[in-house]
Amino acid sequence: MYVAVKGGERAIEQSWDLLAKARRGNPDVPALSVTQIREQMRLAVSRVMSEGALYDETLAALAIKQAAGDLVEAIFLLRAYRTTLPRLGTTKPIDTATMRLSRRISATFKDVPGGQVLGATYDYTQRLLDFALLAEGEANDAHAHGGREPLPGEIRADLAQDSAHVESNGAAAPGEVTIPPVPPISATPRVTDILGRDGLLEALRADGTDPEPHDLVHSPLFTPASRTARLQNLARGDEGFLLALGYSTQRGYGNDHPFAGEIRIGQVAVEIVPEELGFAIDIGEIAVTECQMVTQFGGNQDVPPQFTQGYGLAFGHNERKALAMSLVDRALRTQELGDAVTSPAQQQEFVLYHSDNVEASGFVQHLKLPHYVDFQAELELVRRLRAEHAAKYGTQAAGASDGLAAPAVQNTQEAA
Amino acid sequence: MSDAADLLNTSRDTAQTPSPASSTATVEGYNFAFLDEQTKRMIRRSLLKAVAIPGYQVPFGSREMPLPYGWGTGGIQVSAAVIGANDTLKVIDQGADDTTNAVNIRRFFARTAGVATTTKTSDATVIQTRHRIPEAALHEGQIMVYQVPMPEPLFRLEPRIVESRKLHALGEYGLMRVRLYEDIVRHGAIATTYDYPVIVNGRYLTSPSPIPKFDNPKLHMNPALQLFGAGRERRLYAIPPYTPVESLDFDDHPFEIQKWDAHCALCGATDSFLDEVITDDAGTRMYVCSDSDYCGSRTATKEVA
């Protein structure tokens, strides 16, 4: 009962019990392990790590388990844990040009140095439910998508295969998929670097400086925000929100003509420079998804026409987020590039203050909290206004004019 | 005449055709070419309207397809609605038959309709395309199916659909003329290189889909039936055979197509649309035909000779 919200200790405790039971589901079905979630729901884990702003696959998987698959709740759990951690140091900037690539594509050129590497992607699956996965056994897994029979319509099977396993296993017999040993992290030139060499693409740091990035965790956001603050905000921002905003720029609410210059996914090394050592040491690897969106810019008196960039980065494998982020990043640069801000995605205040799903989810859902003191005040007001209305225009009109009373109420203060 | 070309005479026979799925290897549990016959009929009716009013965007009940929106769902629905068991399908993306998206869509129809597929432009009765029109001239009886991301040519100027529909109704295209004029003022030339706006049959401003403007002249008086499908935006439109299509321009800034100071590194063509390929880390480039069939057949002819 809702009344129990008021001081209902027992009610809260019982709600916890019910939640634990509901989370567990039917006890006859074996419980999911955190390891299973980490290994088999890697994309959910990636999203929770990105928006939870903490790179820890196991804790992200734990949060997903605890939140019964509610990813926004899991993100909240991870953020609430993250905030308790001491800051031991700051890493050097990760170098995404040097990466152990598992996937790398460019939509701007048919082929690029280093090749187009499809990797593991849902992109070219046909969205037909694979009922074989309904059978709980693992027996079918090996055949799920890697069937060696040439598929109907696969006119250039040999060609398609070559491009799917670029270079890494050139020696393998045709038709035989071998998993190569883990290659070292190595440099692959970025498509944008090649464009940049000809001046076709804006230089990332025109003035040669590299300012200390803004830290949103320690200092609050004000607009106009620096690019580093914006990127940090977007990196933690809700995937769905950024997706919708990015999409709106493609439908005319914004005007950027985007091309996916490069999307790369892989492992990068993380380095710190401990004070007592004075040189960088490698402390491990993280997986990231990076998107460099190449967009148009008409130029002005000082700058000739050139391509501009939007940037997106997410932990783990999360292309949708990285692409959407890069579109929104570019849209938020509208003003600095000398164009008029006309669309929601270009408005810093609108985007940056509403992107965080921990904030948004909390405030939207706080409407479930008791508000009856404020509501009582409103109730009293509406009753009084209706009585005054009745006195002025007669009771009949008041009865028929429920709709008319509403605008008066809207002018009063919102309940906080 | 192919089944597909028969479409405009009757749509009944296709609906009554015993499912060819029984005789060819197609996916079990799905109708011929994936869509059910009721849906195909709805799409065909919309296509008939589109053909009757060249360049006009006909709203239609676009369905969820097993490929994502933006990847050709409109084109796939149009192809599924017009294709028959005796048709031969060619699918290109960026002009090439071997690009991943083209391979995927061709495979989809091979699986769900069991139709013959080809890479030869001249052999195909239905050609689904993204971003190109083949270099080889099309002939009567062929159907070009274009995948369209944004059917509304005015969307960057007027994103509100209520308003843009009014502008079309009134034939009020001043916005677009002014935009092209502003390009000339800023850059000295019209700065639109793809999805270059056209007027179809002297009436409707139409998006040719994001083909390079290089291909725009091929839209004009083309003997093939050209159908355009936008799945996510739920619109169909058409350019019937032998319809005049004019690319917008000004008397003192006539419409021009792209030119290269290069030729194809494989077949030597100088008259085709060339893709730039970066061949090494130093940024060395070579140019090759975007139309893989055109390039391949030219290379083959050379070898024979």
Form type of chain B = globular
Instruction: Supply the CATH class of the largest domain in chain B.
Output: Alpha Beta
The shape of chain A, in one word, is globular
CATH architecture of the largest domain in chain B: 3-Layer(aba) Sandwich
**Which fold does the CATH topology of the largest domain in chain B refer to?**
Rossmann fold
Oligomer: heterodimer
What's the arrangement of strands in the largest beta sheet of chain B?
A: 1-9-8-5-4-2-3
Cα-based radius of gyration of chain B, to the nearest Å: 20 Å
Question: Would you give an account of this structure?
Answer:
With 416 residues, chain A is an alpha+beta fold. Chain A has 3 domains: 2-82, no CATH class; 186-364, no CATH class; 372-410. Chain A contains 15 helices and 5 strands. Chain A has helices at 9-24, 34-40, 42-52, 57-66, 71-82, 157-164, 191-197, 227-236, 239-250, 319-332, 348-352, 357-365, 372-393, 395-400, 402-410; strands at 98-105, 186-187, 259-272, 281-297, 306-315. Chain A has a 5-stranded antiparallel β-sheet. In chain A, a hairpin with an 8-residue loop joins strand 3 and strand 4. The longest helix of chain A has 22 residues, at 372-393. Mean pLDDT of chain A is 83; it is low at 140-172 and 401-416. Chain B has 2 domains: 3-153 and 193-247, 3-Layer(aba) Sandwich (Rossmann fold); 260-305. Chain B has a 7-stranded mixed β-sheet with strand order 1-9-8-5-4-2-3. Chain B has a 3-stranded antiparallel β-sheet with strand order 7-6-10. Chain B is α/β, with parallel strands linked by helices. In chain B, helix 3 crosses helix 4 (73-82). Chain B contains 9 helices and 12 strands. The interface between A and B is large, with 32 and 42 residues.
